[in-house]
Amino acid sequence: MTAEAAIAIAIENSDFSLINSPVLICGYGRIGKALEDLLGAFTKDITVCARKDEQRALAECRGSKTADFEKLLHCEDYLFIFNTVPHPVFSVRELMTVNKEALLIDLASFPGGVDKHYAKHFKLNFIEARGLPAKYSPKIAGEFAAQTIDKIIKEKGL
User: Fold this and answer.
1) Predicted local confidence at residue 57, as pLDDT
2) How many CA atoms lie within 13 A of 37 on its CB side?
3) Is 133 a residue whose pLDDT tops 60?
4) 3-state helix, strand, coil in the chain (%, to 5)
């Protein structure tokens, strides 16, 4: 649900089409993988930035280019950047290299991975997008929350 909503935000907030556009996904957990899957319908020019060698190997096997976090010092080639890492990865050094026409979406939970102050300072097209399932798919998000609560209650024997 988060990945689907992130794509909706990208389409609504960019002057560019996702079709054949260069995309960077920072972080390769559950949301990063879902983004890679869904974005593959729009573009094959996807780069996954991940910390672990195993994550990068998996992304390569699934058809994406890969990079480690040093690559974030060279973000000028991407028109769409999705961050899922919940700790600072886009600081002043990285943000200085972001293409001024790119859309940078921070999906990470608090505190997020993008320095908002510098994103504004550099006049980047930046969107902080937390809690997307509840905003874009409230019925399903509520059902998932209820299922999780029910599972916890059963596991704890309450």
Assistant:
1) 96
2) 11
3) no
4) 45, 15, 40
Burial state string for 97-109 with b = 16 or more CB within 10 A and e = fewer than 16: bbbeebbbbbbbe
Q: Is the dihedral of CA 100, 46, 18, 35 positive or negative?
A: negative
5/150 Cα distance (integer angstroms): 26
Residue labelled with tokens 């026409």: 101
Terminal-to-terminal C-alpha distance of the chain: 29
Q: Which residue has the higher pLDDT, 25 or 74?
A: 25
Q: Is 8 left (phi over 0), alpha (psi -120 to 50) or beta?
A: alpha
Query: Mean pLDDT, the chain, as a whole number?
Result: 89
Other beta carbons within 10 angstroms of residue 122's beta carbon come to: 16
